[in-house]
Each structure stands twice: as C-alpha cells, then as structure tokens.
C-alpha cells in the first residue's frame, strides 16, 4: 500500500472505531465491553424472564461490537508499527481492494480462505 492508502485506511478505521464506541454506549457498555449500568429495560419488562432474555441479547451484541472494536484497534496498532497491509500468516502484502473493503483485515484472501 502507498502512504496515501495507509492514511485513508487510518481515517476509515478511526471512523469505524467511533461508530463502534457509540454503539457500545447506546447499549450501556463502555469500550471494554463492560456494562455501565446505564441500560434500562423500562416498565414493560415486569417479567423477569423477558428482562433476562433482553439482557442476554444485549450482552451478545456488546460482545460482537467489542470483538469488532478489538480488530479495529489492532489494525490501528499495525499502522503505527508499520506492519499494516502485510498478511499475518504468509507475510505477503494484502490486496488493497481487500483492505478497502475490510480495513481491519490481517490475512490475505488466500490465507483467510485456508483458515
């Protein structure tokens, strides 16, 4: 990748990071994925079973968002280290089109397919 592409990737990753952090906060969680206690289930959740089901769903969403956030943070760290755009498995460059579509990618298409 060229320096311009890396800077563009950094911008995309930072935007994605902001979006993910915002979604976590909307679900009542912080960046670590821990619930902050700010989540209210409302008066309609008088049934403990319904509240438990809703909480389980929220925890699943938080876990998914946290996994995505970790991948974005790892990609930003690779940019800082100078290893961004290199496959973590084979060491070959990752196709720029793949990085454009999934800037957090750590594997080239061939290695990802084998996994």
What's the arrangement of secondary structure elements?
Blueprint: H1 3-26, H2 48-81, H3 96-101, H4 109-114
Helix pairs in contact: 1-2
Would you kindly provide a written description of the structure presented here, covering whatever features stand out?
With 115 residues, the protein is an all-alpha fold. The protein has a domain at 3-36 and 44-85. It contains four helices and no strands. It is elongated and about 55 Å long.
> How far is the N terminus from the C terminus?
24 Å
- SSE pattern: HHHH
Assign a percent range to the helix content: 55-70%
**Total beta-strand segments:** 0
Major sheet: size, sense and barrel closure?
none
- Spans of 5+ residues with little confidence (pLDDT < 50)? none
Rg calc: 18 Å
Determine the mean pLDDT: 87
What is the 3D form? Answer: elongated
Structure class: mainly alpha
Strand content: under 5%
Number of helices: 4
């Amino acid at each position: 990748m060229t320096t311009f592409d890396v800077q563009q990737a950094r911008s995309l990753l930072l935007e994605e990071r902001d979006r993910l952090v915002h979604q976590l906060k909307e679900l009542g969680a912080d960046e670590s994925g821990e619930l902050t206690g700010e989540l209210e289930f409302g008066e309609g959740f008088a049934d403990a079973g319904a509240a438990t089901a809703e909480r389980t769903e929220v925890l699943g969403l938080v876990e998914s968002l946290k996994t995505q956030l970790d991948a974005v943070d790892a990609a930003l760290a690779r940019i800082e280290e100078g290893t961004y755009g290199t496959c973590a498995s084979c060491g070959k460059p990752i196709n720029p089109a793949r990085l454009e579509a999934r800037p957090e990618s750590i594997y080239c298409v061939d290695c990802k397919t084998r996994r």
